[in-house]
Specification:
The complex is a heterodimer of chains A (263) and B (581). Chain A is mainly β and 263 residues long. In chain A, 0% of the residues lie in helices and 46% in strands. In chain B, 49% of the residues are buried. Classes of the chains: A mainly beta (263), B alpha+beta (581).
Chain lengths: 263, 581
């Protein structure tokens, strides 16, 4: 991700095909009612560049985003969901909700890849963090303690970046692991619109650039018609029809082959 | 003088005192003990009276007739020995296909406990497996969380030593039990100090009762058990103070499309019928568990529900649903006024957006057996702003999604919902509503609901609209509007009065038939408007959570006092005890 001076975010990364795992996070389906969950929602994973998808984790999970970190023993997965943060330490075979009744509507999660014990969560009711890999969570007193926070990531220059909204959207930075925050931009624009129009009547909610069969493509998640691939001239379905895709994440797999992987 | 309703009446003789004094003291003690008993709850054993054993059995028999497949009716059948083969078949089917998240878990859990002695070990194990393999969603409202954590608390208590691998959420029994207990304590504490966020809902109150009954009946921790029983009383008496002959009157956080125009059909009515009216005229499934429960509604609550000989004004302080955006505070304060008489009630909150989509801000409700026994008005409001205030998804996408799935939300003719542009002040039987609707707002009108069931409607009597319903007249004076339009509604049980304008204001007041035909109506109405005055702020009762002749509670005290006919019952959540006088 690159943060332009205008406050516009731009995704320029074009990952290599060889060790690519794609994750799609589904909030709900076409019959989704605000506040409840639907079947075929939650976390989906693809190892074949969006040709097929596997549903992992709870099958009816109002989910927003995911993150993962690779350890010497395998991949640890996290899902940010309406009912808290879910974690799997066995490649997604089993899961645990690692937050409690205090945390709800977790809209984004970010694991510090260089310090995997540091995990940051953006929730509708404030910023939370864990310093022990997710076992315990705190809601630090700051400007963001109770503010609607919906996106969080790390920037090589500015530290942790977080997007919030109360009466206006704001972009914040922290160089203290979220203990204190500074407004970076009081009036910024969310991620740039995709370079091509949505293939369906539903808008594109998230997209990433991938390389498939030596071709640069856009994998787009629509808010109600699932996933689509754009090859530069045409759209094709990439599965999960009817789904409200909240986010798509690509993770290069770096765990040694001897460990292998299931997810 | 007080006694703990679940404690002892105490007196012990002093053995060192001389015999004659002992005898005198003993007689004296007996005398004073009798006097003591005359003024304590022991004589008012009916405080724990309703409903009777016979009535509950009758209720269960009636519920067992229903062959629809749900845990409630299955439980009733098994408990009454009726069509048990069908019941077990239905039970197995229900267990095999859990669906509906917490709306499945709470009756399933209630069934498990109320019918536990009837379950084979195989069925109990099948039940436990559901909680390992199926993930119920937690939800996002107060009733959802009660259902979710209530069931977790009881089931973790039931299966105490299971590791996380045996639970759907990966947490051990101990973790689940502790978290659920912590949340339930927090919810009770917040509610009794600061007010509910999902308050006075004729629909959703129904969903609080069974989880609390189950918690009350089956919690092993005596302190928590007592607390759950106290919360049942707390919610029921909150309802009782604004109950009128089958109707939950006044403003509601969340109403239903049907009950907002026909109050008596609200789900909560089924419990009023069961607990206060000795009636099975409105049976809903959850009553099955109420019929099986050990909980008895104190008689003082029933008395409060019916004590309408003297009019009174009752005040409550509540909180909004949690606001994510567009407000400085997560919970904004809600101030509720209800004027209650034997013939009608008029109740309101101060206006503004306190709940999404289903808010009902004010009404007059009549004590009448006729349907649609209510008059109210609203500014139909629907916007991405409202949705973004209460829900986490993107406001614009929610707006289009909800407008597609729930067409009534964006309908200019809807009868439910709050408005940020609505402000209400009320003094006793009179209220004034004002609206400043900015140009460009989706709908720029205010609609009145006048039911077709009213006895008489005069559209202009000296500038007032007068409606008669039984012994009550409701008078409406349009103080400010650019224009108004009466709209016939052939498909609806009402006439609609639509007011147009950026600034709209009206006064609503009420009286009885004698006042109506006294010959001084115009002067009377003028006086009521003057008494309302230009009251812009709320009176000093802000420091109360409840304030009125039947209920009182100071804000942040955690103590609620009920009063009726010289009796008093105190729910002291600080000391976790009930006291009576």
């Amino acid at each position: 991700m690159v943060l332009l001076g205008t406050g516009i975010l731009l995704n320029l990364q074009v990952p290599d095909l060889s060790a690519q795992t794609l994750y799609a996070v589904v909030l709900g389906n076409q019959n989704y009612v605000v506040g409840s969950s639907t079947l075929r929602s939650g976390l989906f994973v693809s190892y074949d560049t969006a040709r097929t998808w596997k549903h992992i984790g709870p099958k009816n999970l109002k989910a927003y985003s995911m993150d993962a970190v690779d350890s010497s023993e395998g991949r640890i997965l996290f899902i940010a969901a309406g009912n808290g943060v879910h974690r799997s330490t066995d490649y997604g075979k089993s899961w645990k909700i690692i937050t409690d009744w205090r945390m709800t509507e977790v809209l984004d999660i970010h694991v510090d890849q260089s310090r995997p014990d540091m995990i940051y969560a953006a929730t509708a009711f404030g910023f939370w963090r864990s310093t022990d890999g997710g076992d315990n969570w705190e809601n630090p007193r700051s400007s963001l303690q109770h503010r609607y926070c919906y996106r969080i990531w790390e920037d090589s220059t500015h530290g942790i970046m977080l997007q919030s909204e109360d009466f206006q959207k704001r972009l914040w930075t922290s160089e203290s692991d979220g203990t204190t925050w500074t407004v970076f931009n009081n009036d910024f624009t969310d991620k740039t619109a995709p370079p091509v129009s949505s293939p369906s009547s539903h808008p594109i909610h998230d997209y990433i650039r991938i390389r498939k069969e030596n071709t640069e493509m856009i994998l787009a998640g629509t808010y109600g018609d699932g996933l689509f691939l754009w090859n530069g001239s045409t759209w094709s379905s990439a599965m999960l029809p009817g789904s409200q895709i909240w986010s798509i994440t690509q993770k290069d797999y770096v765990v040694p082959e001897k460990v292998g992987h299931v997810y | 003088m007080y006694t703990d309703i679940e404690g002892e009446v105490f007196a012990t003789p002093n053995s060192s005192t001389p015999l004659f004094m002992n005898r005198t003291l003993t007689i004296g003690r007996i005398f004073f003990a009798v006097l003591f008993l005359l003024f304590t709850c022991d004589l008012t054993a009916q405080d724990l009276a309703g409903p009777s054993e016979a009535f509950r059995k009758e209720a269960l028999q009636e519920i067992a007739r229903d062959n629809r497949k749900n845990f409630h009716f299955v439980a009733a059948k098994l408990r009454t020995g009726r069509e048990t083969a069908l019941a077990w078949k239905q039970f197995d089917s229900l267990l095999a296909e859990p669906t509906g998240d917490m709306f499945w878990t709470y009756p399933a859990t209630a069934f498990y406990f109320y019918c536990n002695d009837l379950l084979s070990e195989e069925r109990k194990e099948a039940f436990r497996q559901v909680w390992k393999t199926w993930t119920p969603y937690r939800g996002d409202t107060e009733n959802h969380f009660l259902m979710y954590y209530g069931t977790l608390y009881l089931l973790a208590q039931e299966w105490p030593d299971l590791p996380g691998s045996e639970w759907f959420n990966g947490k051990s029994s101990e973790e689940n039990f502790n978290e659920a207990g912590e949340y339930l304590q927090y919810w009770i504490d917040e509610t009794v100090r600061y007010g509910q966020t999902e308050w006075d809902s004729p629909r959703y109150l129904y969903f609080y009762i069974t989880p609390l009954l189950t918690l009350y009946d089956f919690t092993e921790d005596p302190a928590m058990k007592r607390r759950f029983g106290m919360m049942l009383e707390y919610l029921l008496v909150d309802y009782a103070a604004e109950y009128l002959n089958g109707n939950y009157c006044g403003a509601h956080s969340r109403d239903g499309d049907g009950s907002v125009i026909n109050p008596r059909i609200a789900e909560a009515t089924s419990y009023a019928q069961f607990f206060w009216e000795d009636s099975l005229s409105y049976i809903l499934p959850d009553l099955a568990f109420a019929a099986m429960s050990n909980f008895r509604c104190p008689d003082i609550i029933r008395a409060i529900a019916h004590d309408r000989d003297e009019p009174y004004t009752h005040y409550e302080r509540k909180r909004s649903r949690a606001k994510m955006r567009y407000e400085e505070e997560t919970y904004t304060q809600v101030y509720k006024t209800t004027c209650m008489t034997k013939d009608y009630a008029i109740g309101s909150i101060q206006g503004g957006l306190q709940q999404p989509i289903q808010q009902h801000t004010w009404d007059v409700t009549f004590s009448s057996p006729k349907p649609n026994n209510t008059i109210f008005a609203l500014h139909p409001y629907a916007s991405a702003h409202e949705l973004g205030m209460f829900f986490p998804e993107e406001p614009e996408q929610m707006e289009s999604g909800i407008l597609n799935s729930k067409a009534s939300y964006g309908n200019e003719n809807k009868w439910i919902g709050g408005s940020p542009f609505e402000k209400i002040i009320q003094k006793d039987e009179t209220l004034r509503a004002t609206y400043h609707i900015p140009p460009g707002t989706r709908f720029g009108h205010v609609d009145f609901f006048f039911p077709k069931s009213i006895d008489m409607l005069s559209k202009n009597t000296n500038g007032w609209i007068i409606a008669m319903f039984g012994n009550t007249f409701t008078a409406v004076h349009i103080e400010k509007a650019d224009s108004l339009e009466w709209i016939a509604e052939p498909e609806q049980p009402c006439q609609r009065l639509r007011l147009y304008g950026d600034s709209i204001s009206y006064v609503v007041t009420n009286g009885d038939r004698a006042q109506m035909f006294s010959g001084n109506l115009a002067a009377l109405l003028e006086k009521k408007v003057q008494e309302l005055g230009a009251q812009e702020d709320f009176p000093s009762w802000k420091k109360f959570l409840f304030h009125g002749p039947h209920l009182s509670s100071s804000y942040n005290s955690g103590i609620l006092t009920m009063r009726c006919n010289g009796r008093e019952r105190i729910l002291d959540f600080e000391q976790n005890e009930i006291r009576t006088q």
